[in-house]
Amino acid sequence: MPASEVLEFYNLKGFRGRLIYGFRFVWRFFLDKLAFFCFVKSWRTVIHRWRGVNIGKGVYIGHEVMFDRVFTDQIYIGDNTSVGDRTIITAHANIPSNTRLKKLYPRKVMPTRIGKGVWIMPAVIIAPGVTVGDEAVIATGSVVTKDVPPGCLVAGVPAKVVKDLNESLESE
What we know:
By secondary structure, this protein is α/β, with parallel strands linked by helices. It has a domain at about 55-170: UDP N-Acetylglucosamine Acyltransferase, domain 1 (3 Solenoid). The protein has 5 helices and 14 strands. The chain is globular.
């Protein structure tokens, strides 16, 4: 996404706005790399909070997890959620501006929300604007492009509901 669109989104104007954006981008990029290679799990969570990701209490962030680098403040993760290794969570898609695809897929920044008690297994990709309901489970390698209902197991590319876990939990 061009810097001009990012500056407009954050309402940053003029030279001062560009300076603030530049510093913020470099700082978040540094923290992103620090968190990516950090081996202490509690530090990873703290570093991602410093980057601007909204993370609840008791959240586990796995190794090499990537959050959106530009719009980190548009990602929300609820309490007691586990994010598996090598997962990617985004809040915007970067479509090349000089192609005809821009007409079909306009650039948008959409908040991505992960509910409370969610288990995201390793190597999952969560697209911009997706809301994952409370106590949902996302299987390994899934690509989540649509909202996930609470208490469901989703799997596949694209991810689809495989099982309603609420029924299993209520029968116990």
